[in-house]
Amino acid sequence: MSFASVYPHYVAKIERKGQQRSDVDLVIRWLTGYSQEQLEKAISDEVTFEQFFDDAPALNPNASLITGLICGIRVEEIEDPLMQKIRYMDKLVDEVGRGKKMTSILRS
To answer: InterPro entries, from UniProt (predicted)?
Structure first.
């Protein structure tokens, strides 16, 4: 599955809840270390999620602080590293949609 095919759903989800696309981009960049230009290129190149995370400059060292449930599964207990990273991203987008403060979302 390509990251580009899911990204519009992330944006639509948070926009329905009154948030902005730039907030989605911010949390994705925080998680992956991508610059805005690199993120846009990954979207336009329609890279897979595996490629997206393999090419990420650096997973944020505080990513392990992302905890909680996504689809009834605790993100901190997911054993598959790729699936855990995807669920980290899902969790961050959910938090943006719920209107949490960015300092809390970015675990700072």
So the answer is: SP1917_dom_sf, UCP033199
